[in-house]
Amino acid sequence: MIRTLALASSLSLIALSSAQADAVSDFFTGKSISLIISTGVGGGVDTNARLVAKHLGNHIPGNPSVTPKNMTGAGHLQATNYLYAQAPRDGTSLGAILPAFVGYQVLDGRGAQYDARNFNYLGSSDVENANLYTSSSQGIKSIEQIKTREVLMGATGAGSYTMLYPTLLNNVLGYKFKIVSGYKSTNEIHLAMERGEVYGRAGNFFSSLKAQNPDWLPSGKIDMLLQIGAVRDPEWPNLPLLTDLATNEEQKAIFKLFSAEIALGRVFLTTPGVPEDRLAALRKAFEETMRDPAYIEDSRKVDMQVRPLTHQQVKILADEIIAMPQDVLSKAKVAMGGQ
User: Which H/E stretch holds residue 78?
Assistant: First the structure.
């Protein structure tokens, strides 16, 4: 009797699991999933997100199409706010958002209509350091030189790394970056660098730079001055980290906060409120995509790395940033020019 009951229970669970899978497949069949990208066309985040979109649908039950849609504005705030408050909460709206939105929530918050703790994370496709560089025409070989001369830096909006890092260095260490904001995309900033309108850019990633402007490093068109992350990139062992510039413990704590955000990598998420069975299917599909030989090969072709994080890892890192001690957050707010 016990064996019979156990067998019946197992069969019931299998039937329930099968029914749930069928329900997810039925829902996604014939659907088009929107992948909202918080940057402009042509940048590294955009390139990476489009690669994921190309392969992700193959791993979702029902094989829906995944359509990339760029939504720029307010330094990633527009896309993040849309996904949190306006997008459908049924699993048909995903986001590829620069992780600056997590720190922005607790360090500034102006215009933020979201709580990063409530997003449903799918994972991160890659983790690498951000950087800061200037045109070689300026002859700047060390970040320390910008303590004594003004350098024009292109930026998109207040919630972007293009504005964050120069502002941070100005306010904490007295650097002389002059920020020229309002560019619609990082690709526009690069074009402005070529025209001589601005001299540099912050907040790019090494793989993005190689994919977007593959000739810049080999030709010596830019001078790399700084990297931001937890540890130095193996390809750039002599390039200083943001934390290396700190001259006291207070500065180091502030810089560690912003470096921790980089550890989130290229974040993919969906809205709050997605039904659990669909959310589980999306997360499983993302993990399978990260292991898909076709996706890995396509990434290799454009010099994109595949060093993923699970949704659990992304969630832990995001929550840790939001839970930073108030005294560190207060000092970081001042460093950003706030009160």
Answer: helix 77-85
**DSSP sequence for 178-212:** EEE---SSHHHHHHHHHHTS--EEEEEEHHHHHHH
**Distance (Å) of CA 326 to CA 105, 116, 321:** 13, 17, 11
Task: Kindly report, residue by residue over 171-228, the tens digit of the pLDDT.
Answer: 999 999 999 998 988 889 999 999 999 999 999 988 888 888 889 999 999 999 999 9
Q: Give pairs for 67-70: CB < 8 Å, separation 24+.
A: 67/32, 67/33, 67/34, 67/35, 68/35, 68/37, 69/34, 69/35, 69/36, 69/37, 70/37, 70/39, 70/40, 70/41, 70/46
Determine the Cα–Cα distance for residues 20 and 5; give it in Å rounded to an integer.
Answer: 22
Look at residues 272, 305, 315, 299 and name the one whose alpha carbon lies nearest to residue 52: 299
**Fold match flag (32-127+264-329 vs 130-261):** yes
- Hey, is 258 helix, strand or coil? helix
Query: How many angstroms separate the CA atoms of 205 and 267, rounded?
Result: 14
Q: What angle do CA 165, 173, 74 make, to 5 degrees?
A: 25
R_g over Cα of the chain: 22
Q: What is the mean pLDDT of residues 147-154?
A: 95
Which CATH superfamily includes the segment(s) 130-261? Periplasmic binding protein-like II (3.40.190.10)
Whether pLDDT at 52 is above 50: yes
Domain topology for 32-127+264-329: D-Maltodextrin-Binding Protein; domain 2 (3.40.190)
Give per-residue pLDDT as tens, 282-308: 999 999 999 999 999 999 998 888 999
